[in-house]
Amino acid sequence: MLGAADGAPWNGLDVTPRLEQGATLVRAELSAIKAVENDYRTYPAHTGADYEFIRPLADRYRRGTDAAGRPFSTLAIEFRCNLPFPFTHYDCELRILNRWAADGTARTDIYSTSDDFHWLAGRDVFLPVRDSAGARVAWLLVRHFGFDLDGVPDESKHRAEALRSSLGNLRRKAEAFAGAADDAALGDRALTDFAVLGARE
User: Which of 8, 33, 151, 154 is deepest in the core (most CB within 10 A)?
Assistant: First the structure.
């Protein structure tokens, strides 16, 4: 669970948000994962997706270094997704933080305070997988994710379906991607420095 220690903006809710958890093994560089994750031109073609539009917001991608010298980056995107009848669609402005935690793990935090949601939040944790010689051969991506749409009777199975779909699409795209910079050249910035692609608003 995400809570007060994380500075979560939904701490004032009358109910405790419940998150789904999933994990997938991604045989790709971290820079490749971040490259495909931030190519929003491709999202409407994702398996199971029903975007009316998705795009990064102009002038919201920023990079910096925290007090401990660890690189981080922030950005924001907006999207509209269609819903099955009798509902229409929902709009979301999603805020994203890529950072290295104090324990050395790579993390991506997301949240939204958009009017169509009571709450939406998630966290990705990237754990390196190494062979017997110590070489990194993959990343284990562990995701916590949840949401509660306003006026829509969503259930745990809907959140779990959204989590499985997003993880599966990301893994397939990252493993097929051949154009990302090498992690060794980027170092810690493999998590935070990437191109954000898509028509901006």
Answer: 33
Task: Name, in order, each residue with C-beta under 8 angstroms of 175's C-beta and a sequence gap of 6 or more.
Answer: 26, 27, 28
On whether the CB atoms of residues 62 and 193 are closer than 8 A, the answer is no
State pTM to two decimals: 0.89
Please name the residue that has the structure tokens 């893994």: 171
- With vertex at residue 127, the alpha carbon angle to CA 121 and CA 128, rounded to the nearest 5 degrees, is 150
Assess contact for 111 and 9: CB atoms under 8 A: yes
Q: What is the four-CA torsion angle of 23, 28, 34, 35, rounded to 10 degrees?
A: -140
What is d(CA 159, CA 139) in angstroms, rounded to the nearest whole number?
A: 23
Give me the residue label for tokens 């994380």.
Answer: 6
Q: Are 103 and 82 in contact (CB under 8 A)?
A: no
Give the list of residues 6+ apart from residue 157 with CB closer than 8 angstroms, or none.
Answer: none
